[in-house]
Each structure stands twice: as structure tokens, then as C-alpha cells.
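#lab-general

N.A. 3:47 PM
ok so I finally got the sequence cleaned up, no stray characters, all 513 residues accounted for. can someone with queue access submit it? mine expired

B.Y. 3:52 PM
send it over

N.A. 3:53 PM
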Amino acid sequence: MPELEDNQEKGGSALAAVLEKKSEKIPYEVEEEERLPGSRIRFKLRLTEEAIKGRLKETFKEFNRHIRIPGFRPGKAPMNLISNRFDREAREETVKRMVPRLAEMLCEEKSIVSISEPYMLDWKSDKNQGTVIELALEVNPDIEINDDTLKDLNVDAYKVTIDDSSIDRAIENMRNRSATFEPSEDAVYASKDGVLVNCTVTGSDGQVIEDRSQDDYYTVNVDNDFPKAIAEALVGKKKGDHIAMDIEDESEGGMKVHYELDVLEIKKRVLPELDDDFAQDIKESYATVADLRAGVRTDLERSEEDRQREEVLKGILKLVSERLEFDLPRALVERTANKNISDMEKRLNQYGMSLQYMEESLVRNYAANVEAQAKANVRNYLIVREISKREDSDPTEAQIQEALERTAERTGRKPLAIRAQLEAKKQWDQFIEDLKLKVTNDKLIDQANVSWKEVSFEEWEKIAEAQRAEQAAALEGRQAGSPADSFQALTEEIAAGAAQGEADAEGESQKGE
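B.Y. 4:20 PM
back already:
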């Protein structure tokens, strides 16, 4: 088939031309090189007119094809007319298109690993004076790890005792999550029951606040969905009761609003019996309540071991970080923060929620929290990666196999299948890199001198709450002991959304019955 062969030859030659253009050497001279804050390097490059002439000509041809010139058909205007009228625009476009290739050549020449797209800072281009381009490359920072950096790693950490009361609370939470809601004509509302209401909220001007008012609204999260005064007023109410109240609503900026609620139905929350059937519903391998308790203890102890490890590692990295000075790459911080926000948005979407519909102050503070956390995570990642290079933390075959087995246990698949999938998706190298960082973390933990303080689960909850409040105060510039931070509020709202989604499904199921 001569025609097909001819087309293939043309296609091949066209592709070769494109590839050749992309790899074409552009002659340039480095006039200035300077380190900038944010782990960036600025370069000032000078190019002769001859160096850009061919590319500039191509840009003029493209302009001619797309720009309409009175008196000429598209693509038929004289090139000298196009070049005279659009010289600056064509030069700017040509420079922009050359920057990626110039950055690539700089990385090769200077042995630089750029971690983001190049930033074009400035440019000048003139037929007589040539072209000057200023660009910046973002690179990994230089981090100097030495023996002094890693000595005297003394950290304090809590060891939470897992006792029978801890197990009781965990099982009670399981029962709460498995609760059903049964309608009753004579039921009296109590906290955590389900309730169906008509709700109308009006402002001080008498206008209905549409996004706060709804008929046939069913919820099992009254404490979360209504102001505290309304939630308290509902306790003890029955079907057919009416509530009318004026309150100062914090969500409306402390404005006085008027609530009218009609109770249409009460559904009593019913917890499942703690028996062998319940244990088997939680997990098939649990034949009895004793098996359930043993399984919960194992899970709690494993979770506590992981928490202790994270607490110790966090303390170590805080010490090491204080001994080092380096700029964070902006691109890494932005990518990390954007991924966290994207993951949060996906979680919200699962429950019919979105960040864009939440209170502005809550979202703003959440974004600040995410950015602060992203900076800390990127800083710790860069430190651990540098230590791993110094300590030669390549994982052994035994460690690789152990990691595969852990993943297999978590996903219910075989280790060989996990490895095959990672290799097929070209994710094996990243798997090994992540494992290398874990091996480094384990070495740091083994090297640390840990002073343990044993506390009960109840004591730990209070300590953790105080730590969250302190973190929120530091983030928002408030004094410790002020109200809970907005990030926690958002987390609670997600949890409430999840519970409400389950309640809605339960309600629909019971309506069907």
C-alpha cells in the first residue's frame, strides 16, 4: 500500500521534526546567577538576534494565519507588515515558548534538579540589542546534616494505658454507630433521638432566612444542626408540640433571630444488644462478645503503638528542624496544601457538602491550617529524605517483604499481587522511596532518648484537646484557652454529615417498611 507507506513516512518525519525542535540547542550566555528566597535560583540570560531569528519567524507566520489584516485574506498579508505591526507581541510569545527549553538546558549545564515549571521574571527583546530573559528555577534546598544535628535527641511522649474502660468506650461507640431509630406516637424526645420538624427562622427584620428554614427536616444530630438553646428546648417534647423562641445566633454574627419549630415525629434511638450476634455483625471471626473485646483490645493497642511512634517522631523532627535553616520550596508547599484541600473536598462531597458552601471564616481558617500543616509536612519530608541519604537507609529484602505483607493484610490481597500491581502502574520506585523514608524514621526513633509519661485514656483525651486548642491559638493568633479552632469545627461538621447521611438512609429504610 504505497499511499499508506507514504503517509507513515510523512507522519514519522513530522514527529521527528517536532522532537528535533524540542531538543534543539539554543545558544545563550548566563550573565547573572543568584539564589533567591523560597529555594529558587534566578538566571539572567542573553541571546543574540540570530539565536531567536528562526523561532521568531515561525511566530510571525502563525500570527499571519490567525490575525485579520484589512485588505488581505488570512495568511496572505506581507510578512514585513506583520513583523512591523506585531513585533513586540511576537517577541513576547517567542520568549515564552523558549523558556521551558532554556530551563531544561540550564538544568543540564548546572546539574540542577528543578521541581516546578520555570518562572519567567522579566524579558527584553530588540532586533539591535538582542534578547535578555530573567527566569527562576525552584530547586530542592541545600540541607546540611551532620553529627551534631542528630545528637541528643531527647523527647517527651505519652503512653496511653489501654484498659477495660477503653475497650468499653470503643464498643459503646460501635453500638452508637449501629443504632436504629424507631417511630413511636407517644415518644418523648431525648438527646440523640431522631426528630422530624418543620423549621422557620426569621431575622430581626421579619424576613425568612431561607437557608436556615426547611419543612420535613429529619435529623439525629440536633446538637449540631440547631443552636444550643433550641436543642435544649426540644428535650422532653412530643409529636405535635410547638417551639417559638428568640435567640442570639452566633452563626448570624450574634444577630437576634426567631425560631418556630413544629415537632412532626420522634424516633427513639435504639442501641443493639451487646451479645454474640452483635459481635458477629461487627466481624465474622468474632464468635462471642469475649472475642469482640479481645479484637478491640488488639486494635486499640496497635493504634496506640502507631500514635506513640508518630508522637516520638514528631518530637524528634521538631528538635532537628530547630537546628537547621533552609527555605521551603513554594511549589512543594502549594502542591501538598492543594492535595489536602482536594482530599477534604472529596470527603465533603461524599456527604453532599462542599467547602464553597461553608462559612467564610471557617473555610479561611481551615485554609490557613492546611497551609501551616503543609509547610511542616514538606519541611519534615525534606529533612528525613536528606537524613536517609546520609544514613544509607535502603530497605532490605526482608523489610520490603514485610511492607508488602502489611499492605496485603490491609487490602485482602496477596503480596505478589500487590507488587505486580505497583510495577504495572510504575509505582514500585515510589513504594521503595516511601519505605526508605520509613526505615529512616525507624532509625531516628531507635536513636532517640524518650521519657515516657503513662496516662489513662480519659486523661489523654483532655491532653489531646488542650493540644488542639493550643495549636489553634498559635495558628489564629489567639490566646490559649479560647474557643475550639475552626479546623476542628470543620472536622466535626464532616462527622456530623456522615452520621446524618446514615440517619437519612435509616429513615428512608424505615419509611419503606
